[in-house]
Amino acid sequence: MALLLGGFGASAQRLSGRVLDAVTGQPVPYASISVPGASQGTTGNAEGEFEMALKLPVRLIVSELGHRADTLAVAVGQKQLVVRLQPAAVELPDVVPGAYTVELLKKAYRHLQRVNRPRYGQAFYRQITRLDNEPAEVLEMVWHTKANGVGIEETAPNQGRYAEKKALLKFKDFSLYTRAINFISQGTDSTATDAILSLNPTADMTLRLIGLSTDGKRELADIGFASKTHPEKVFGSFLIDTETYQLLRCRFVTPAFGSRTKNPLFKFKDSRTSLEWVFKPLDDGSTILDYYKIDHQQTLERKLKPDVAVQVSAFTIFYDGQLKPTANVSYQRGKKGDGTDLQAIKALPYDAAFWQNNSVVKRTPLEDATIKAFEQKGAFGTLLTP
What we know:
By secondary structure, the protein is mainly beta. The strands form 3 sheets. The chain has a 10-stranded antiparallel beta sheet with strand order 10-9-8-17-16-15-14-13-12-11, sandwiched between helices. A 4-stranded antiparallel beta sheet has the order 3-2-5-6, with no helix packed on it. The chain has a 3-stranded mixed beta sheet with strand order 4-1-7, with no helix packed on it. The two termini are 26 Å apart.
């Protein structure tokens, strides 16, 4: 994902903007903003916001999976821009044989097996834990990362910071889901794999074609899947380029990641985790992780006390991808028992300048409500500082 925020030279002007859905008015997260015929560009944040330095006047292309790309003219002196993208038209073909979705998933799987290759770069991770909608924990990390067209393979901590309030629960190693979960078997090509994307996609899942849409010159197929045994609890979809067979997005909902506790007075119920991987197509036919989101919800049941609504939201953005690993970095695969994120953060020297000057972090600011919630409790000023 390109994050080229050119320097603010004398001839450049600062432009900030926001990308919205033209129908709903809601923010469009992580849209791509680029200058036609040039390498300069950026990507919006989770709230659809972006900023960049440009020599005006200029034309910009704004695009995002699931929306029609738009080209806009930016005039000299213009400082702010609101972009409203139209949702991509989704149509079902008149006749689609039942084997269409199966064959397309098989071809996408074969394509990944053939072209998947690692790239090395940085990943910014932010996690916010909320109890009854009140922020209780904020954790941010930047990893040296080995990623590919499936997700994150290995990481090494680079920078981190953390803040917490006194609360019933903490999720200090939640990023394990980001670093360890895959929806495809990267090992031996086998029809016996129980991964969601495989050569036997109907072994445990039923499939349906949600629709076909166009994204520029590409035709995209949105294929839904659901568990044969628990379709209301385990389901999701794949977005696949029907010509290149590149996998561009995977969404997955599951109850499988519920928490456990040794406290006999506590019990968790109603676990639900939504995951979304988005991949960027590359010129060599492969793809690379663009960003990854998780939203985990469950209820903490307490004896003789009110239930507590638990929510953990996290996202990871991969950037500065290159083919060679960073020198003198020891990458490791995330796994249970490898130590908490907080332990890793405490082992790193805090570099305030890194956080103040990092363009990725600056483009994804904490919500004001979250900051105020911690300031009222005096939780800032230790590990998480401005």
